[in-house]
Write a structure and sequence with these properties.
By secondary structure, the chain is mainly α. The chain has six helices and two strands.
Length: 156
């Protein structure tokens, strides 16, 4: 496969990284354990892996070799890997005050899903989900502070 053909995945990876970065920037502003760079890398890697699987499926080099690639299995692998990273952002308080980092872990899973979506070529859907995620992370916090909705972790 020509090297120029290989670079066709790059714009999707950059786009996924930008979307993930927007979400990561919000997490960074709130001083969460996973921020801008982590979210960018998770989204970009997800898009890269899905784009790579699409390239391999279309590559004549592998035709007739019996190579089988199931993109949905790759999605499962991405989700499992990101879940491991997300688990590292969750901390239980030693004082028994609760658990912190669950929203950041969920945002990492979401940017992985955005990267997967972009990797499959659904750019508008990836953008829409990124904007919806930012709305959840910012607007719902604003409503919580004004006691318009119940807080995620009510005070004890």
């Amino acid at each position: 496969m020509e090297w120029m053909e290989q670079l066709r995945v790059l714009p999707a990876v950059v786009y996924a990284m930008a979307l993930g970065g927007a979400i990561g920037y919000e997490r960074e502003l709130k001083d969460r354990p996973a921020g801008f760079r982590t979210h960018m890398l998770v989204a970009g890697t997800s898009a890269l892996l899905l784009g790579l699987s699409r390239m391999v499926l279309e590559d004549d080099h592998y035709a007739g070799t019996g190579l089988r690639i199931d993109p949905l299995r790759l999605v499962e692998a991405v989700v499992a890997g990101v879940s491991f990273i997300g688990a590292g952002t969750i901390f239980a308080s030693r004082k028994g005050d609760g658990v912190q980092g669950i929203t950041t872990a969920a945002s990492l899973l979401t940017v992985a899903a955005i990267g997967i979506t972009v990797g499959f070529g659904y750019l508008a859907l990836g953008f829409a989900i990124a904007m919806l995620t930012l709305a959840v992370l910012t607007l719902l916090r604003w409503f919580e502070r004004r006691n318009l909705v119940a807080p995620e972790d009510p005070p004890k």
